[in-house]
Amino acid sequence: MNYNEVGFRHLEAGNYELAAQAFNDAIEENPKDPTAYVNLGTLLQSMNDADRALRFYDRALMIDNTFASAYYAKGALFFAADQLVEAEESLRAALLYGLDDADLHFMLGMTYQKLGDPVRGLPRLQRASELNGVDIEIAFQYGLALAQNEKLEEAVEMFEHVLMLDETHTDARYNYAIALAFLGQQEACYAELEAVLAYQPEHALARDAKAKMDALLKQAD
């Protein structure tokens, strides 16, 4: 029996006590395997017990200080707590020790974004998008990062990709409109702002941007 697999089935079903028992059984069966310690930490984190979760992640790293999943789990915990410096350190270690999946790159990219470092955030979000091209939030955040790095034509393409996945994504459509404006496509920008307000009439940024464009059009008349 694979106790870790059993534990995750219980965790996904919301049966926390059974999940904890399965992960404890995995530890008792093989106390030198860091996997179950990370899994038990993940369970505790899902129960909002971050302090105990962190202790289990650290125990996993005491067994194997190159265990990428433990670094990723610590990074996710620190990110959720808005401890961005610690999150960056742990997530970067997970990357160093061989973890290469969309969630890691996305979280590391968002950490850099929140730290005010869009230059370092961009390649991580790009890699996340490469690994998972259908995740709407990854695509949207990558589009924002492209715009912040003044790669407006690429940002437009990414926002168009988001809108192909979800045409009602008003924040993507608003940022698409603004990028079009900076590229000199004022009519297209105005049309997209109208579309944003058709989907979400209370979208304040789109309403204000459209009002400014209306005022400019009146002045031109």
TrEMBL record:
Record-linked SUPFAM superfamilies: TPR-like
Record flagged with keyword Transmembrane: no
Signal peptide (UniProt feature, chain positions): none
Keyword list, A-Z: Repeat, TPR repeat
Keyword Transit peptide: no
TPR repeat ranges per the UniProt record: 34-67, 136-169
InterPro entries for the chain: TPR-like_helical_dom_sf, TPR_rpt, Ycf3
PANTHER family, A to Z: TETRATRICOPEPTIDE REPEAT PROTEIN 6 (PTHR44858), UDP-N-ACETYLGLUCOSAMINE--PEPTIDE N-ACETYLGLUCOSAMINYLTRANSFERASE SPINDLY-RELATED (PTHR44858:SF1)
Protein name: Tetratricopeptide repeat family protein
Native source organism of the sequence: Exiguobacterium indicum
